[in-house]
Amino acid sequence: MHEELDIIEKTFSEEIKTLSTKEGIESIRIKYFGRKGLVPSLFEKIGQLPKERRPEWGQKLNELKSKLWNSLQEKEKEILSKSSTPFSPSHSLFSFFDPTLPGRPMQSGTLHPISIALKKIFEIFKRIGFTLEEGPEIESEYNNFDALNIPLGHPARNEQDTFYIKQKVVLKDNSTGKLLLRPQTSPVQIRIMKKKQLPIRMIAPGRCYRRDEIDATHSIVFYQLEGLVVDKGISLADLKGTLEYFFRELLGSHLQFRFRPHYFPFTEPSFEVDGAVRPPEGKDPKWLELCGCGMVHPKVFLNVGIDPEVYSGFAFGFGIERYLMVAHKVPDLRLFSENDIRFLKNLSPSF
């Protein structure tokens, strides 16, 4: 192999002297260092040597490889420096830089419409004492379902509805179950209540994932905002007052509300909240769904070690894209993730 190493080094040195283009550099790189190049083929032959000689030859081959590679890089730098020639009068007129011309206007960007909406929402809730909390997008089955009173057999736990990513595990907080991409921000409620730092008044925004058919009103990825209040003496009147204040600050003071009875496993009683702007006389209001909400179910409190006889609370949640679709009359949910600058300009005036 000594002779073979010397031949390769000598041949490489002769070939590299004649190089003058970037294409030539690339062809030499492939010839000597490519997957089927001369240097890798030498490394394959080490396995044919006796075990006691392999370390010695491995070291020699690594030294040769480094030497040839460094030489190739130096040659590449030399070629690139020669190709970067300064401006001369013989250059094309179009390459001339005229410092007296006015500058080209810079297009200023802005936050994404979802980020702008979240910032506005945070400011409103901050005024009434809510804190901002976050949780992981990869959650345990227990936090996402069992602790929220969603039993086995519930449709939401079907693999056709939820992205499961791993078999049963035990997490740092001792919660167990399969890992999944959270389909809702509600597990953040469980994480915060487990800390038992009462009272609680928090909101938790974040991405959620569901196995939906993608169309104008559905997506596999969307933003949701969750709210939770836990304290002594919390009633349904507190829930109504909080949501009416928030949505009037967000959408306008003339908003009317309608609370419709509904079912959620983690709240009892549960409601869906509709909103409508006061219509002209003689016309019926056009109601639009704003969010789901309810009083925290006693079973949820028991699952996190809070006594439902002492504490009560309420929770609510809504989609950020859905709010933007209503507020700005956006016809298609997919527009929020396509990064079409024409759409973003309409919703973000700073562009």
From TrEMBL:
Annotated EC: 6.1.1.20
Gene3D superfamilies, per the entry: Bira Bifunctional Protein, Domain 2
Gene Ontology biological process terms, A to Z: phenylalanyl-tRNA aminoacylation
Assigned protein family: Belongs to the class-II aminoacyl-tRNA synthetase family. Phe-tRNA synthetase alpha subunit type 1 subfamily.
Residues given in the record as Mg(2+) binding sites: E268
Residues spanning the signal sequence: none
Protein name, per record: Phenylalanine--tRNA ligase alpha subunit
Cited PANTHER family: PHENYLALANINE--TRNA LIGASE, MITOCHONDRIAL, PHENYLALANYL-TRNA SYNTHETASE
Location(s) in or outside the cell: Cytoplasm
Known cofactor(s): Mg(2+)
Organism: Methylacidiphilum caldifontis
Domain Aminoacyl-transfer RNA synthetases class-II family profile: 123-349
Cofactor note: Binds 2 magnesium ions per tetramer.
Pfam families recorded: Phe_tRNA-synt_N, tRNA-synt_2d
Molecular function in Gene Ontology: ATP binding; magnesium ion binding; phenylalanine-tRNA ligase activity; tRNA binding
Phylogenetic classification of the source organism: Bacteria, Pseudomonadati, Verrucomicrobiota, Methylacidiphilae, Methylacidiphilales
GO cellular component terms, A-Z: cytoplasm
Catalytic activity: tRNA(Phe) + L-phenylalanine + ATP = L-phenylalanyl-tRNA(Phe) + AMP + diphosphate + H(+)
Domain of life: Bacteria
Subunit structure: Tetramer of two alpha and two beta subunits.
Keywords of this entry: Aminoacyl-tRNA synthetase, ATP-binding, Cytoplasm, Ligase, Magnesium, Metal-binding, Nucleotide-binding, Protein biosynthesis
Gene: pheS
